[in-house]
Design goal:
The complex is a heterotrimer of chains A (196), B (660) and C (257).
Chain A lengths: L12 H44 L9 H26 L3 H25 L10 H32 L8 H26 L1
Helix pairs in contact in A: 1-4, 1-5, 2-3, 2-5, 3-4, 4-5
Chain B lengths: L8 H10 L1 H25 L6 H29 L22 H30 L10 H20 L2 H14 L8 H8 L2 H10 L16 H4 L3 H29 L12 H32 L14 H33 L6 H14 L14 H13 L1 H15 L4 E2 L2 H24 L1 H7 L3 H25 L1 H5 L5 H27 L14 H31 L67 H4 L27
Chain C lengths: L6 H33 L8 H32 L1 E2 L15 H32 L7 E8 L2 E6 L4 E4 L2 E4 L4 E7 L4 E4 L6 E4 L5 E5 L14 E4 L11 E7 L1 H10 L5
Parallel strand pairs in C: 2-6, 5-11
Antiparallel strand pairs in C: 2-3, 3-4, 6-9, 7-8, 7-10, 10-11
Helix pairs in contact in C: 1-2, 2-3
The chains are: A mainly alpha (196), B mainly alpha (660), C alpha+beta (257).
């Protein structure tokens, strides 16, 4: 096998092109990784929703506080909106605005998580009931995702405040789509546990 | 790898520094556990150690462990804009810390799986000794036996079978076989490995809190009745599953995006195909079993009644478990078949037969494996499920048969070089075949009513998993031994041990079929006297099986230490891993390989797969990169992992680093 | 060995291996017949014969398959051997072979479909036929950690620790569990049925041979699903008696009103 060395000169114009290609591949790989992660996440929530119907049918406690759930939904939507703003700002290199948006998304996400924790105290809920068990399972899993996600988004916010993000905007896109996924899951919870 | 802390103070200082991250991880893990458990107990207002405190403590302990081993420097601190400086270590110390080299991780997996296999194997020896007589005489209680049996099964399934080939060879050889520099997400990869030790430890530690006696399946509602050790089963399995999931994401992304130029899907090495499809199964079904594990935990600490007879569905657990559990059989077996075919073609110097057919077969298995699960529940299920699941189970034997089509098609008229790995593959073909044949008996519902939950089943799945996967793993350990150690093993010793293994294995497990038919139900420490003669014989013969495995271990370890240099390609293999030195350098290949043909063609007319870039000859490129020679293109892109530059890579595109 | 490339050799290999396959298959079938003639464990139920017959039939199907692979592997190990350091490529290089592949696919598909129909579906039908037997004796089986109890509601016999059945009388077992999942299995009857808490399951059996645990240790109720510490010892005695003896037993244990 012929042995050759790598291009040693990092400053050649060709290398700059290489870099761009490398970045492109890296970006695609990361977004693909995110897509795989979301497939896996879906396989967490789909069984949980299926179990809710399997155990409790379409029944739910009549006196469940669905007004509170609507408030939480509004907060979750606002959190995603903040994420959206952050992404747009970052695309225009307006880093302070991006950081602010990310902070807002993280905090509102945490508020949703804590809020659904407060919602657990609803007297209509009983862990030992067919409905209650899966309710706690679904909302708990979602809240844990929000907490972990908020920690990640806060990290991006810290980086954005300094004017640059590791990996260019790819990680921001990862956060954005993950947040979109969590929003969809929350809406599904809203429909399946509060509205049906 | 023994840690030398003796003699000169200099060496002990070096050892201490080398083991620093591991010690820190243990410390942070224990601290995390203590803090989590204490805070929970205080919040609960309890003065004692509650089950919830155990769960929370485990989770915080796991976080502490991951941060301590290097997650703090490599993941958390850079995320918050801090430095990503981390010493990946050199020499043997690389293996005891967070290291992103896929080859280091592969060996970490292999050695961990080997140690776990040894531990769980020892438990099997204790069980066999107990079972030599009808009465309970070695172990103090039936509960102790149940605990041992449960730990044996859980470790073997979740920490050995699904980890040894997929985590070990998968990490080590997928990037090498596709000509990549590393996995797509090296930090994720290292994180995934470091989930394995805590997962294994949790399961081993379960007797400290009473153990669990439901076996590796831990059927409900027994799981809710068991001692608190059951929680460590859920947590340990969850942790090990998480490792598999992260590896799956990594393998798929790596295979899709990091193949060398010219490595089209139609040329993808057969082992990489099996790794890819295994990863798809892991990706889809591991989260599902994770849900079941969390439900099991909630059943104990949150007062839910998912599986309770009163208010829940006791059989729900079995459905959730086997929906993952049967694909898991293929998670275990696919890569073993991939190894068979790799080794058969190379050792027989003959073109792999029916590449497309067998890849199609693997695809069909991957799809069908998700619709056979209820055959584990024939004696439980509603009538309406019997015929559909019996049918799918029998039909999945058709794509499985394609593996034998290819194997025999390759073997026939080949030039069989009966080396140790080849011998083990041929043995694996025979023992797995017997497991498949007894599988036909179990898939047939009327016969299954008789055989299920007896030693017939015990024999069946040991033939499948030990005969199929463990034999293939051993074959792979020998086949790739020159590559990952750079040394050659002792061939004569290996062959003797392989024969002893084959004979010892069959002598141990074949009689169990008849024990089952004669009325010996599984998972029991005591039995009626009339089964004793056969059991004594099995227990004695099992010693030969144990001896054979010890001999293999001795051969591998001794050869690693003292074997002669093997050179880059001792077998004359054509896949890319043989085109680099043994063991490969950090960046795997001096130049990015260029693939011109498939890897499994032999004979005079066979084109060389061609790893050498030839100016002017361009295979179908994977990247839109015109106006550049492949040589130049080879320098970048592949696996330039963020924040983890290898020693020889230092590109400005390595963001997240303090070096920019 | 130095094989000359070309058809004649390949044909000879096929012939020898094919003949070995035929001989071994015949030997295997004879072996199974000999084994089955007197080595099938003690059987005491009509429906149990379905399982035994299925196993025997499946043996006939899998023996040729098993022998095919065995012959291929062993023949290759012996006849196609080359020195380990010999890197000569095989003289015969085949990437695909339509005849071989199609025969293979056709055979495996036919076998898989066959075993689904028989003994699969036909066997199930036969087992399910027992449900239509008129006037079955009803026995309620209750499993709990770690004992069995049997109630004969029509005879007014309650909570017996042993199972007594009249010979040749169809029995309907109604099975449930008080705590965790158990499995109701009488090895001599072959078929087993899980006992699930909160639900009842049924098993229809017609015992056709008189005996008790003294006749064969296969005549016992054995829990077959791991249920905790006492799982191994969760067994009960089974006696199959004449109709007259059964009535006698019913009176003895206080039933019969």
């Amino acid at each position: 096998m012929t042995v050759s060395t790598r291009p040693a000169d990092d400053s050649s114009p060709e290398t700059a092109e290489h870099l761009q290609l490398g970045e492109q591949r890296e970006r695609r790989t990361r977004l693909f990784g995110l897509a795989l992660f979301i497939v896996a996440e879906t396989m967490i929530f789909v069984p949980v929703f299926a179990i809710r119907f399997l155990l409790a049918g379409t029944a739910r406690p009549a006196d469940l506080d669905d007004g509170f759930a609507l408030v939480l939904t509004a907060v979750m939507v606002a959190s995603f909106a903040a994420m959206h703003i952050a992404r747009r700002a970052a695309r225009r290199d307006r880093w302070p605005a991006a950081a602010a948006g990310l902070w807002a998304a993280a905090v509102l996400g945490l508020v949703t998580a804590v809020g659904s924790g407060i919602g657990w105290a609803d007297p209509a809920l009983d862990a030992a009931s067919d409905f209650g068990g899966t309710f706690y399972l679904a909302t708990g899993a979602h809240a844990l995702h929000l907490v972990a996600g908020a920690a990640f988004v806060a990290g991006l916010a810290v980086q954005a405040r300094r004017g640059r993000l590791a990996g260019g905007r790819t990680l921001l896109d990862v956060a954005y789509w993950f947040w979109a996924f969590l929003l969809v899951v929350w809406l599904a919870i809203e429909v399946i546990f509060y509205l049906m | 790898m023994a840690v030398d802390t003796s003699t000169t103070p200099k060496r002990s200082v070096e050892a201490l520094a080398g083991l620093g991250p591991l010690l820190r991880a243990a410390l942070w893990g224990l601290a995390g556990f203590a803090v989590g458990a204490l805070v929970t107990a205080v919040l609960q207002g309890e003065r004692q150690f509650t089950e919830l405190a155990l769960v929370v403590g485990y989770v915080t302990g796991l976080a502490g462990w991951q941060l301590g081993i290097g997650g703090w420097e490599t993941v958390v601190r850079p995320l918050y804009g801090g430095s990503s400086e981390w010493d990946e270590g050199t020499g043997r110390w690389r293996y005891f810390r967070f290291n992103t080299d896929h080859k280091v991780i592969g060996l970490q997996y292999l050695v961990t799986a080997g140690v776990t296999f040894g531990l769980a194997g020892l438990l099997a020896m204790v069980m066999r000794t107990e079972l030599a007589t009808a009465e309970l005489d070695l172990l103090p209680t039936a509960e102790a036996y149940n605990n041992l049996m449960s730990i044996h099964g859980t470790l073997m399934l979740f920490a050995v079978s699904v980890v040894a080939i997929v985590g070990g060879f998968g990490n080590y050889f997928v990037p090498l076989m596709i000509g990549a520099e590393d996995m797509a997400f090296p930090r994720l990869n290292a994180t995934s490995y470091w989930l394995i030790p805590p997962g294994v430890l949790a399961i081993i530690a379960s007797p400290l809190v009473g153990g669990f006696q439901g076996g590796w399946t831990s059927y409900q509602p027994l799981g809710a009745d068991n001692a608190a050790g059951q929680l460590l089963f859920y947590l340990g399995v969850y942790t090990l599953g998480l490792a598999s999931l992260l590896t799956a994401i990594n393998v798929i992304a790596t295979t899709v995006f990091m193949r060398a130029p010219g490595l089209t899907w139609g040329r993808l090495p057969i082992f990489v195909w099996t790794m890819l499809l295994t990863s798809v199964l892991n990706l889809v079904w591991v989260p599902e079993i994770g849900v079941a594990m969390v439900m099991g935990i909630m059943e104990r600490v949150a007062g839910t009644t998912f599986f309770a007879a009163d208010g829940g569905l006791p059989l729900l657990w079995q459905d959730l478990f086997w929906m993952f559990g049967h694909p898991e059989v293929y998670i275990i077996m696919l890569t073993a078949w991939g190894l068979w075919l790799e080794i058969l073609a190379v050792m027989g110097r003959k073109t792999l037969f029916g590449y497309r057919w067998v890849v199609g077969g693997f695809l069909a298995i991957t799809l069908m494996s998700s619709i056979v699960w209820a055959h584990h529940m024939f004696a439980t299920s509603a009538d309406a499920r019997l015929i559909p699941f019996m049918s799918t189970t029998e039909l999945i034997s058709i794509p499985t048969g394609l593996v034998y089509l290819s194997a025999i098609g390759t073997l026939w008229l080949s030039r069989v070089r009966l080396t140790t790995p080849m011998l083990l593959v041929l043995f694996s073909m025979l023992t797995f075949l017997l497991g498949g044949v007894s599988g036909v008996f179990l898939a047939d519902a009327p016969a299954d009513f008789y055989e299920t939950d007896t030693y017939f089943v015990v024999a069946h799945f040991h033939y499948v998993i030990v005969g199929g996967m463990i034999f293939a793993w051993l074959a792979g350990l020998y086949y790739w031994f020159p590559k990952y150690t750079g040394k050659m093993f002792n061939e004569a010793f290996g062959k003797v041990a392989a024969w002893l293994l084959f004979i010892g294995f069959n002598a141990t497990f074949f009689p169990m079929h008849f024990l089952g038919l004669d009325g010996m139900n599984r998972r029991i420490a005591t039995y009626l006297d009339y089964m004793e003669p056969v059991n004594i014989a099995i227990s004695i013969l099992a010693a030969f099986l144990g001896l054979a495995l010890i001999l293999h271990l001795i051969n591998l370890v001794y050869s690693w230490a003292t074997g002669p240099p093997a050179g880059p390609n001792p077998w004359g293999g054509k896949t890319l891993e043989w085109e680099t030195s043994s063991p490969p350098p950090r960046e795997n290949f001096e130049i990015e390989p260029l693939v011109l043909a498939d890897f499994y063609s032999y004979g005079d007319a066979a084109p060389e797969p061609g790893m050498v870039p030839i100016p002017g000859v361009r295979p179908r490129p994977l990247e839109p990169e015109p106006q550049r020679t492949s040589l130049e293109a080879a320098g970048i892109g592949a696996g330039s992992a963020p924040g983890n530059p290898g020693p020889q890579r230092h590109h400005p595109d390595d963001e997240a680093g303090d070096h920019t | 060995m130095t094989e000359q490339p070309g058809r004649p050799n390949a044909r000879r290999h096929l012939l020898v291996a094919g003949l070995s396959w035929v001989v071994l298959t015949v030997a295997g079938v004879i072996g199974v017949r000999v084994w089955a003639a007197d080595s099938f464990p003690f059987l005491a139920a009509e429906q149990g014969a379905v399982a035994d017959d299925a196993i025997l039939f499946l043996f006939y199907l899998v023996i040729p398959v098993f022998m095919f692979v065995l012959v291929a592997v062993v023949y290759a190990m012996i006849r196609f051997r080359a020195r380990p350091d010999d890197l000569t490529d095989s003289a015969v290089q085949v990437r695909t072979h339509r005849g071989y592949t199609m025969t293979w696919l056709g055979t495996t598909t036919a076998l898989a479909v066959l075993v689904i129909i028989h003994p699969g579906v036909t066997g199930l039908m036969e087992i399910w036929d027992a449900r239509d037997e008129p006037d079955p004796l009803v026995v309620e089986v209750t499993a709990q950690q770690w004992e069995w109890s049997f109630t004969y509601p029509e005879q007014g016999v309650e909570n017996q620790p042993e199972l007594v059945l009249p010979v040749d009388q169809p029995v309907r077992f109604v099975i449930t569990s008080e705590d965790v999942i158990h499995s109701f299995w009488i090895p001599a009857f072959r078929l087993k049925q899980d006992a699930v808490p909160g639900a009842t399951t049924e098993l229809h059996i017609t015992p056709d041979r008189i005996g008790d645990i003294g006749t064969s240790e296969m005549l016992r109720v054995q829990c077959a699903e791991l249920c905790g510490i006492g799982h191994a010892d969760m067994a009960a005695e089974v006696s199959i008696v004449t109709a007259a003896e059964f009535d006698e037993w019913v009176t003895e244990v206080g039933g019969g009103q």
